[in-house]
Amino acid sequence: MSLIILDVDHFKKVNDTHGHLVGDRILQLLSKRLRHNLRCQDTAFRYGGEEFVILLANTNDEEALVVARRLNRVVCEEPFSISNKLTINITISLGTACLQAEDDEQGVSLLHRADQCLLQAKTTGRNRVIAWNYLSHVPHLKVVSS
């Protein structure tokens, strides 16, 4: 199992510019777009604010990376149509991690690794994917720009 955590880049600016109703509509449309680009066995949910978590069943690091890159692309390449007069372009930052044998049963350590990757994606420019990989049992971040 793998986990993706993502955050809408500069979401406060959307709310400040267009209002919270438009911001809420963006989140609804984003949720729909995410679900449309996932398998039926995957689970996407709003984690808080403008953050979403996606649980990917039966996936490894590389498969999670492929999904995260696809989601990043389908969000940034097509504007979100709010009305016939308003479309808004958004981007997302994503962090991925894969379940490891030493992870706790509640998934806290898995979520923490993915969240560290998300934080790195946001601090290094946003609109990108950063994946957590294990090579020789030494954790490191793998930066993958969109």
UniProtKB/TrEMBL annotation:
Coiled coil: none annotated. GO terms for molecular function: diguanylate cyclase activity. It holds the Pfam family GGDEF. Residues 1-134 form the GGDEF domain. GO terms for cellular component: plasma membrane. SMART domains: GGDEF. GO terms for biological process: cell adhesion involved in single-species biofilm formation; negative regulation of bacterial-type flagellum-dependent cell motility. SUPFAM superfamilies: Nucleotide cyclase (SSF55073). InterPro entries: Diguanylate_Cyclase, GGDEF_dom, Nucleotide_cyclase, Rev_trsase/Diguanyl_cyclase. PROSITE patterns: GGDEF. This is Diguanylate cyclase.
